[in-house]
Structures are given as structure tokens and as C-alpha cells.
Amino acid sequence: MYSQENINLKNILSQIQIASHVAVISVLGLIPKIDLPFLPGVPITAQTLGVMLAGAMLGFKNAISTVAIFLSLVVIGAPLLSGGRGGLSVFFSPSAGYLFGWLVGVGIISLIMEFLVKKFSIYWACFFSSFIGGILVIHFFGIFGLTIITDLKFKQAFYLSLAFVPGDIVKCFLASFVLFKLSTVIKSK
Question: In this structure, how many other beta carbons lie within 10 angstroms of the beta carbon of residue 125?
């Protein structure tokens, strides 16, 4: 009986973590997007920070589930993306590759985080895992998506995507800071 209660409690905790992170990514969508005139359809948003946090804080399964649920809500029309965007059409827009990249990136972040946290402080483990999964992986998918959906060549899409990198590096530092502070609070309890 005890083990069944333990399993149920673990499932409930996982569901709460997933729902909380879906909410965080959604709330970050309320921060106004910044449209770039030279790359219409691919705005700068704060939501990648939520993806980085989900990957760094949750295990692989819960991190993937978080982004999958979020994107599923977007597909069915929930206006959760920055600027109130939602619906199936966003997955055929220039930003589609970045959205698909979130799903792969969050998984990569969680896998790398699990490895690095044993070797580095939680701050630097989060930074490096967010940089690799949250910038390199997501941008790879974003660039690939741009070449498919627009008339851009790979090299052009690559150079245009560099405009996002400084802000994404700031998001890596923010995710690391948040995770470090949360771990400090949890350790003090």
C-alpha cells in the first residue's frame, strides 16, 4: 500500500511540475515580442527562457511533456505565443522551426543538465546546458525551418539568426540565476 501511495504522489508531483512550467512559458508570452524588420515572422520573445528553465529544472520526460503540452495548446488555437499568436498556422510560419526546436532543445537541456550538474555548480551546469540546447539546438531547427518556409538560403538564415543570440545568452544567464537562487532557497529549508 505504501508504494502505491508513493507512486501516486510522484505522479501528482510530476503533473504539478509540468503544469507549472506550461504556465511559466505561457506567462512569458505576455511580455511583448520584438519584431525584427529584416526577419518578419520570427520575433524575439522571452518564452525561450521558459523552455530553458523547464529543461534545467525538470527531468527529460517532464521537460519534453511540458513543451509538448504547450505546443499542443498552441496548435488547437490557444493564443499562448508572444503577441497572442496561436493556431496551426504558426507551424507553417517562418518561426515554425524554432517552435519545433523547443521540443528537441528542452530534452537536450535536461540531458546535458543531468550530466553537468555532477561536474559543475548548478549555475554553470544550467548555463552550458541552456546554451547548447536552448541556443545551438533551437537555432539549428530555426535556421532549417527558415530555409524550408522562406526563400532564404542556409547561409542567409544563419546570419539573420545571429540577431537572436545576444538576447538568448542573456536568457541563459537569467535561467542560471533563477535556478541557482531556487536551489539556494531549497537547500536552506
Answer: 22
